[in-house]
Amino acid sequence: MEDLLDIKFFYNPELNEEKIPVRPDGRISLPFVGEVMAAGRTPAELTTILRKIYEQELKKPEVAVIVRSFAQHRVYVDGEVEKPSEVELHGPLTALRAIASAGGLKESGQLDYVLVLRRGPDNRLIVFHVNLLEVLDGEGDGNQDVKLAPYDIVYVPRSRIADVNRFVHLYLRKNIPITFGLFWNPLL
Fold first, then answer.
1. Does 164 lie in the same domain as 84?
2. Given 46, 69, 92, which residue is the final one in a domain?
3. pLDDT of residue 119
């Protein structure tokens, strides 16, 4: 579900628009002016921008922007968790709570190098790691359990020992045609 806006023109009701979706690129489309960036702006900021834009088309562009509905903000949890999934963001949510909401950590998960991926203001990807093992052990300053922002991705990597176990299983046990039962007989 996306954000939906109503745009009301006090002196030109024929231009009123209802339930305008904010597209994934953050823009809305309006008559006479085309596309306008709405994402990241408050209703008051968007109202001011629309007044300025419509001054070229209308004598008295009195405009109101009404937010009809908000999209549910989410974070995504992936990697070595029981149920990789989207987690709805209702108020403050930390990386550790998001992992718990995704069913918790698998035995193969590595809590001391959890990655958090976030889009910055210039839409560049910011990647940082947090040590949640310190949080659980009561060590450190507690700032490692970061507060998540909408659309963050929390990725729990596989531990090194889990990588070794996987290697042994895939390359040695699957590829070498030796059954260990031939060498050991408990009856002898």
1. yes
2. 69
3. 84
CB-based contact 112:131 (threshold 8 Å): yes
The answer as to whether 180 is a domain residue is no
Q: How high is the mean pLDDT in each 10-residue block of the chain (188 residues)? A: 84 90 85 87 91 89 88 85 89 90 91 89 85 82 81 89 72 65 52
Question: How many CB atoms sit inside 10 A of residue 85's CB?
Answer: 15
Residues 6+ apart with CB under 8 A from 75: 86, 87, 89, 93, 98, 148, 149, 150, 151, 152, 153, 154
Rounded distance between C-alpha atoms, residue 66 and residue 80, angstroms: 42
Is the pTM of the predicted complex or chain greater than 0.70? no
Kindly state whether residues 62 and 104 are assigned to the same domain: no
Please indicate, yes or no, if residue 185 is contained in any of the structural domains: no
pLDDT at 40: 77
